[in-house]
Predict the 3D structure of the following.
Amino acid sequence: MAMELDVFVGNTTIMDEDVYLLWLDGYTVSDAVSMRMKSGILEQCGASQDVLESDTMDHYRTFQMTERLLHNPSKLVNQLLFQIPPHRQNMLIERWGGGAAIVKITVQKCYKILNPFSPSLAPSLPPSLALTGRYYAFDEAFVREVLGKKLSKGTKKDLDDVSAKTGITLKSCRRQFDNFKRVFKVVEEMKGPLVENIHQNFLLSDRLARDYAAIVFFANSRFETGKKKLQYLTFEDFAFCAEQLIQNWTLGAVDSMVEDMDVDLDKEFLQDLKDLKVLITDKDMMDQHKSLVCTALRGKLQVFSEMEGSFKNLSRGLVNIAGKLMNNKDVRDLFIDLVEKFIEPCKSDKWSLNDVRLFLTQHTNSVRALDAFKHQAVWERYMRVIQSCILKMYHD
Amino acid sequence: MPGKLKVRIVAGRHLPVMDRASDLTDAFVEVKFGNTTFKTDVFPKSLNPQWNSEWFKFEVDDEDLQDEPLQITVLDHDTYSANDAIGKVYIDIDPLLSSEAATVISGWFPIYDTIHGIRGEINVVVKVDLFNDLNRFRQSSCGVKFFCTTSIPKCYKVVTVHGFVEELVVNEDPEYQWIDRIRTPRASNEARQRLISLMSGELQRKIGLKVLEMGGNAVVGYLQCFDLEGESGLVVRAIGTACTLDKLSNPSAALLPACNSPSKEIKETPFSEDPNPNTHSSGPSTPLKNQTYSFSPSKSYSRQSSSSDTDLSLTPKTGMGSGGSAGKEGGPPKTLLRQQTQTALEQREFPFFTLTCFPPGFLVHVGGVVSARSVKLLDRIHNPDEPETRDAWWEEIRQEIKSHAKALGCHAVIGYSESTSICEEVCILSASGTAAVLNPKFLQDGSLDNYSEHRLSRQPTYFSTGSEKGEFDFFPLSKDSSSVLGLEEPSPPSCGFCHIPYDELNMPFPAHLTYCYNCRKQKVPDVLFTTIDLPVEAAVTGKGCLIQARLCRLKKKAQGEANATAISNLLPFMEYELHTQLMNKLKLRGMNALFGLRIQISVGENMLVGLASATGVYLTALPTPGGIQIAGKTPSDMTYEQHISNMQKKINDTIAKNKELYEITPPKLFTLDPEVSTFKGQNTEISEEVIGSPIPEPRQRSRIFRSHSESSDEISELDLSHGKKDAFVLEIDDADAVEDIHSLLIDAPLPAGFYSCNTEIMPGIYNWTTGLQMFTSVRVFRLNNVNLTNQGLNKIFNDLCENLLKSLYFKLRSMIPCCLCHVNFTVAVPEDELIQVAVTAVAMTFDKDQAQESWKASVDKALMKVIAENEEQLQFPLELCSDSPGAQLFSPRKGTGLLESASAQAIPGAQRATSVEYSSFANRCNSWIELVKVKALTIRRGSIKTTSSLEKASPQAEGHARVRSTTAYTGSTITVVKMTPLSFIPGAKIIKYVGIINMFFIRETTSLREEGGVSGFLHAFIAEVFAMVRAHVAALGGNAVVSYIMKECVFMENPNKNQAQCLINVSGDAVIFVRESELEAIPVQPQTTSSQASNSGADVTT
């Protein structure tokens, strides 16, 4: 004796946020049921387990049917199959600028909540989260694993390792990976600003669109982020750096009308970076640069002597990184280089963040006083990014 | 050459990829109507083609316009091979043929394929130019409006109600034609869809003709069904009530808040019957050649004269005894009476009405439920143009219904419906309705104006005084009928419909009568069963609830006549048991009447499944139901007695709990006469004595709301008063009885915050908010255990229904407090070991707090006064005069009574009137009660057991403020379309009916597993059906479907072949509604409403 068929269809599609999250996280129906049971929902509603099973099945089916639409969120807006309540659709379309924090929090919170061993399921999540936003939200732990990797079949095959390492279900890993890849595919060849493109095509919140832009950008240039030395960096750090790079170093940065994308770095600019070498190869210039910086910072820096001692090393490090960027391979190592050549030495000398900021500002600005240096524009374009990246990355 | 149909194909979107190589599609469109086809250009390589076609023009007969659907096929162009069909859209253009419905159909339609489901959307514009005056074309019936709604549609007033119309057309089912062996499933499905669409069109046209012939212009309560008879064919049949409707053109009326309008409309629009009822019945049978009427009017006339007794004895031609329904004729004196009650109405062939809601005063008395069932063996329909057999079958059934109604002293049947259940070659035809006496003056010309004036002038007084005195002349015109019935005085509307229509000395069945608890003048039965909605003016105590009786009976597998005989033999027992269950459950809830009763008996190969659903209420006019008494047969054993008393206690507790839950605080009568409690069989006389005792002055007759503390000490004192009432005795002498009791107690209580009913509105809830969720839920249960007993089967079926309800409550928990309205269960036995239950209902939110506040603030004040005034008299009989709830509550306040009650009236009116415009009726035991009586050996009435009721004053809602949901409409291009099985939308006013929706879909799959199994398949299909309904409504310019009903959901599967097929038939009325302003949504303020009320009153009188 068994229930052969059991469906519930509402004219207005009912979507339970909690179940949606469980589904997104790749739990099976039975896992989801047991987790919901632990949340005490049954006691609240006086229902039995089979009621919960039936309900969960219904939701899972609904989500599976919506998934096709979620892959192309612009379709979701004018599809006819599901009548998703106006306010929910509103949220979906609405470009919630302030939503950034919420998404972040949710991503983490969700994960915590859904830990099977956590005794209580969160009451109910902020209702202002859109379906799409939820679907495209990703786990911090996951994104750190794949950031900068090629979004290929090979990487996808390795997702079981990622799943084992992060504790995120394989199903969820696959969905997140597929989301990255889908977004990548769509915007890769598109004209116009990257963030805007993602925003338009996937109806993501501003913040989430920025995050995706970073992911796409990293995947395209295949920046190394997985090395042990880089483990202390969060996704947010990288996303910030990506934004800086996109805004300053890509073709789009120079001329927004240009028929190219934000994804690739400005090759010409990278080529020009070689010219900066003069700052370290010309001994006079280097000395002059050092004295300018030291004069300006005397008394202002807590680590003045250390700075004086390591100036040449640090300066050489920064300029050398610039010089190498014309090679694709070295571009990939940008972040590891920054850490090795600059951040680690400073940290070992116990520079404070403020010291670093003062030093970098002075170091950049002092070059203007070097009359013999002819590449001011390139230098400033380069250092603008390097400075903000280092400052962002300079933490424990 | 009466019409030109114009179609333009604009664009497509979200088309499926048809060319794997390019991931694109080269789409074009074929537009077909009748035998003419047009094509658009191919729009190459796009999933979002923009055809922007010219106008395709079809010049067609209006007959074709009515019959044929517009068929739009989207195809993928293929240079080398045949073009692949992407999918189709069928558009019923009927709404465009009526000047009052839609003028253009324009919008995005889902492109539907019977194998793949929805595949993209297409934007189409359709218009019709009708050339000539519509009236000249009698072959067609363009312009006749059809409504599924079983009440007078909102923005119309009724001029005349002509009566019953029916028609059926038959054809061969394409699925069973020889060609089906060689064609693809897709072709076969499409042939079927097209055929049914065509047949519906034809049926509607033919019914329209009948309506025109009767002089009407609309069909209300239109119910169309199809019977898949398999090999023997396909029957599409429909019934409805022909009316002449006038559009309410009065702009001021249109501008009035929705809440007030319906009731107002009624006042303005008294019912009338066909002025010359004889004209059409004596006319020529029909001017049409292709007529398929089984009963031409003249024929009916002659039939009419023959006694119904002989009709009853008619047996089907197949030789099967007509099963079920046991209406017995009354004795000879009864016949005399019946002759006297002959009215104009009775001269029509079938005085049936598919309506369930009537204008106040239309209904005089209600006799009870009448039903008839008949088991038939299907044979091949040889000549589709002459579907005589099917017609004859239905005629038999209808005659039987009619004679049952007569036996109950009634001349009309209201809330009438018909249904079938088919299994292989056996078919059960069922019909049921409520026998009623209608006001004969309504049926004649000339009295209307008079009447309406009366009503209008009296209405305010009536509601404000709250005493019965003023109402006596309320139905001055109903005297005829009442004198016929041997009554001297007309009855007040709040209880009049409850009064028995039959002669109490010659009752058609043994029943237990008492004097009406409301007016004390006339006799009422102890229990009323009806198929109609609760009349608006009925006095009800507390809230109502959904009551279901469920039953399975095993049956041996058999063939042909043996099978039909077996089924016939089982039917009476099933009806009896269902009735017993209903009765028990009703008493268990402390209620005394059922509304919206619907009994479905489905036949399968090896079992019969019966499901009765109704909404139980406590009618103030009827006596308080006695409790349920359990009696052991062999009261020797101590443990046995212990067991019994335990059970008794449980039952008593449940009754008490239910009374509290449903806020049933019935009036107390001063009936401390000790004799009352000891003599059974004398109840009638005793109650007469009670009635004879001085009736309190009207001013004293105010309702007592007893507080909890009061009730606690009152109980002991008033306890005896219950002794007068019947107790219902269940004897536990066999396993069956034990099972009955268990099943009684098995019904899980409703979760807090939920109410449910199967009628239009929930008695006792008036303050609906805007939350609305229509849903369909389907479950199929497989019985793997072949050796099931009846009991085992019953339990399974019971659990299936209970669990389904529980799931619904859980699903909809976010809507609390809410009420499931119009809960419509259908059962089927699709295969040997499968039971299918489908339920469609709507969950509506209501505002608990508002109710309490707006009502209570004033009620409390009033109460305090009353209590203070009457403190000393409390132990004495303070009978309530219970008119409408509003009047009840406010009656005590004399001075301000008028204003206050006017506002009170407006408050429930605001939300309630929208739904239930009018109506009055009631009814009484159905004809099968006799059966019950005959066989009811275990049930004894009149035994004297008292059940003390623990009552509280209306329980205080401990709710918290509910945030009103403000629906923010987005800039989305898609119209939000509400769907509801009810005839109204809470908090909104329907301003236009844009057309009837009647759609039939087939979906089939050969990759069941890939589509998520049977559940995934059906889930997707139901969602698609909803989507297509919404799209059609939106294209008609509507934003809601009211009176939505899923008439058929036939699901077949073959998991071994990875296949499944499903057929769904839905219908409803597409409407345009506008939300009431925010201001009106806010709790109604007495001042404003009362002024509104008086304004409207003024409007009406002028």
About this structure: Confidence is low (pLDDT under 50) at residues 90-129 of chain A. The CA atoms of residues 22 and 32 of chain A lie 6 Å apart. The beta strands of chain A are 2-10. The radius of gyration of chain A is 25 Å.
